[in-house]
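Q: What residues go here?
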């Protein structure tokens, strides 16, 4: 009798497990039935800076968006774009170049001063955004849309994602960056919110007491790197 009860209990657990596993599949909504409005991730805002939830962030203020398996786009977040301000020249890696996560592969120049940013991922560059090379102002105007920089074939997505800002810490990370900028100069707070809740187009344009080049390099995590920019960083356009 005991053996029969044990067997019945075991079967019951199997059936319960099957039911819990299969039920979500049966009620799953087909992708085609989801409206474009509901399928499109909404922009989030942290301290006035757009911080979309559908992209992943590197601590050096670059972002990566996985569009399909092994393929992702890379760009600068709005904080980096606003800190860079009026970019006069943009430099990007070459198509076909292999880049490493944390490697300096992006460079922006304003008022004759050059600052680099690092790649948020490792892989082979497969596409360059020619439009942003022709018009670097897109970096500030649409940093997550038309202002994207390049696309990468990422063979090992799992290992790359480990060094990105954890999703549940993005808000705290961005807020800390903004307040660190406030701490440099109290009047910077006014520059950040010069147009209501939106940051000014160029955060440090009217704050000459804050050295743009060294300040930006510190936020972009490139202030103390000794290696020169990669030789492949040849795609550039003088505006």
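A:
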């Amino acid at each position: 009798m005991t053996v029969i009860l044990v067997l019945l209990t075991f079967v019951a657990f199997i059936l319960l497990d099957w039911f819990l596993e299969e039920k979500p599949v049966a009620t799953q909504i087909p992708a085609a039935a989801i409206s474009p409005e509901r399928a499109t991730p909404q922009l989030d805002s942290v301290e006035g800076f757009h911080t979309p939830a559908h992209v992943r962030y590197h601590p050096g203020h670059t972002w990566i968006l996985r569009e399909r398996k092994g393929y992702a786009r890379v760009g600068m977040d709005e904080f980096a774009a606003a800190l860079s301000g009026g970019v006069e020249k943009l430099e990007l890696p070459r198509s076909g170049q292999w880049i490493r996560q944390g490697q300096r592969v992006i460079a922006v120049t304003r008022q004759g001063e050059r600052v680099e940013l690092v790649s948020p991922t490792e892989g082979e560059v497969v596409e360059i955004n020619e439009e942003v090379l022709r018009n670097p102002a897109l970096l500030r105007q649409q940093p997550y849309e038309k202002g994207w920089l390049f696309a990468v074939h990422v063979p090992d997505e799992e290992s790359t994602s480990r060094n990105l800002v954890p999703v549940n810490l993005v808000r705290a990370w961005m807020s800390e960056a903004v307040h660190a900028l406030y701490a440099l100069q109290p009047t910077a707070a006014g520059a950040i919110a010069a147009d209501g809740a939106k940051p000014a187009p160029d955060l440090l344009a009217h704050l000459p007491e804050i050295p743009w080049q060294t300040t930006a390099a510190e936020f972009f995590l490139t202030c103390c790197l000794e290696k020169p920019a990669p030789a492949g960083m040849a795609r550039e356009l003088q505006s």
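A: Context that may help when evaluating the design: The mean pLDDT is 79. DSSP finds nine helices and twelve strands in the chain.
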